Amino acid sequence: MVNFNGEILEDETLYLNIENRGLRYGDALFETIRLVNDEVILWEEHYLRLMSSMRILRMQIPMEFTMEYLEEQIKSVATSSAISQARIRVTIYRNNGGLYTPKNNSVSFIIEATPLSSPFFILSEKRYEAELFKDFKVNADMLSNLKTNNRILNVVGSVFAKENDYDTCLLLNNEKQVVEGLNGNLFLVKGNTIKTPPLADGCVNGIIREQLIKIIKKLDTYVLEEASISPFELQKADELFITNSIIGIQPITKYRKKNFLAVTSKDLIGKLNAVIRLQKHV
User: Which residue ranges of the chain lie beneath pLDDT 70?
Assistant: First the structure.
């Protein structure tokens, strides 16, 4: 089931056409969210990022797009699909009309729900090998901070990873700094210092990234740095991990000839789960 502008439709229903601006120009953005026990996890943070992104893209925000309204729309599609734990994708796109210049800035939305197996973030201990993707670069600007539908770099990088038996790739910007992973923000651990690239380097303004930064800053055991990461630092690190709203924290187990531990990852994922339980009482 999908929620299209407030109407629950079967997955097979044709509700888009060839004039869709998300299809034609990537004129769309999205949020990927966890629903746990019918609660939308970190909803305020996702909602504020969504509204901010729409303003930056000069989309018209409908009057009814309140936190309460969109939360109700998310829950309605999950309920209609009989899912209480789900991966939710909210897509907002500018309505049909125009070429590069749209006829107007009004929007439509699509909400999808697919089942999740666990109500909490669980740290995977399986192999997760990474390599640099050098063919194309991330632009270090504000558009790269947004979750837009322009993800062709991530698609091509994922094909490269699959072809070469890697589990993920790390992306570079035009200054040859490591920006993020294909599917989330990057954190590097060296001693008691935890480092993550700044938004100015072009990484996505991730919700879990934001949550971990807040958690780490409150701990005496770690020092947080929002600073550029060079490729030379990767093999010198004690740990590398990726974060996003669905997996929480994904340790990188190998980069080139270096194998990594997951001690800090295990510590932080427990604290991340605790923060979410406290916020949503799940």
Answer: 278-282
- Per-residue pLDDT, 13: 87
Specify whether the CB–CB gap between 2 and 12 falls below 8 A: no
- pLDDT score at 274: 93
- Which CATH superfamily does the domain covering 129-280 fall into? D-amino Acid Aminotransferase, subunit A, domain 2 (3.20.10.10)
- Per-residue confidence (pLDDT) for residue 282, from 0 to 100: 44
* pTM tops 0.85: yes
Backbone angle region of 213, left / alpha / beta, with phi > 0 → left and psi within -120 to 50 → alpha = alpha
Instruction: Map out the domains of the chain as residue ranges.
Output: 2-115, 129-280
Q: Which structure tokens are listed for 48?
A: 């504020």
CATH code assigned to 2-115: 3.30.470.10
